[in-house]
Amino acid sequence: GAVVSQHPSWVICKSGTSVKIECRSLDFQATTMFWYRQFPKQSLMLMATSNEGSKATYEQGVEKDKFLINHASLTLSTLTVTSAHPEDSSFYICSARTIEVRGPKTEAFFGQGTRLTVV
Amino acid sequence: DAKTTQPPSMDCAEGRAANLPCNHSTISGNEYVYWYRQIHSQGPQYIIHGLKNNETNEMASLIITEDRKSSTLILPHATLRDTAVYYCIVRGYNFNKFYFGSGTKLNVKP
Which chain A residues contact residue B94 at CB under 8 A? Predict the structure, then answer.
């Protein structure tokens, strides 16, 4: 399957600072990328949908000014957690879909996740 | 998207078949059933998907009931590395988003 890479795999930051997480599709072009958050022992929660060249669409209850998403190219999307607080500590996962294929035959490919700890 | 219901956990002996059920009684005609799994602290991994016919690939088989209100993921010979949380997701045709339910924690035991 296609490869989606996230960087960094883990990060520790101080409360009040911002941290950026990158999501790259390594061997395919992705018009759409998705960002999820997962707290311990819970399922993945969709935060936002990122479309190349346009503004991200956020799920209800997700603060768009706190979680800034940029999808500047067909292979890169970034999530910036601004003014991070300890409650933002979580496992953040991105996902991408290929540009060529749409519809039910397309599965989503997931990155390995980024563990964010805010101290 | 239709809501799915899965048992929270299941045990399976190593080498035996693991049968993971999923109920999706409100599924509509153009919605597909997808299965993903998540091994601890990793991103989800695609397993298989189907509409109404049974499907098989190198990882698993997917059995969908005739009324499409439920399905079963079958891992024919479970190994310890198959220990993971398995998610059953229903998604509409050409609809982008995947919404994850609570999943089933499969424990494969020696």
Answer: 102-104
Interface probe with B: pick from A25, A43, A50, A91, most Cβ of B within 10 Å:
A43
Residue A105 has pLDDT above 60, yes or no: no
pLDDT band of residue B53 (cuts 50, 70, 90) is confident
Q: How many CB pairs under 8 A join A and B?
A: 56
- DSSP characters over B10-59: EEEETTS-EEEEEE-TT--TTEEEEEEEE-TTS--EEEEEESSS-EE-SS
Q: Determine contact, residues B82/B105, Cβ cutoff 8 Å.
A: no
Contact by Cβ (8 Å): A33, A95: yes
Of all helices (H) and strands (E), which one includes residue B91?
strand B84-92
pLDDT band at A106 (very low <50, low <70, confident <90, very high): low
Q: What is the pLDDT of residues A29-88, one digit of tens each?
A: 888 899 999 999 899 999 999 888 888 999 999 999 999 999 888 899 999 999 999 999
Residue A93 contacts B where some CB pair is shorter than 8 Å? yes
Q: Does A96 touch chain B (CB under 8 A)?
A: no
Q: What are phi and psi of B63, to 5 degrees?
A: -110, 120
Q: Looking at residue B1, what is its pLDDT? A: 62
Cβ separation A107–B32 shorter than 8 A: no
- Whole-angstrom distance, CA of residue B75 vs CA of residue B60: 5
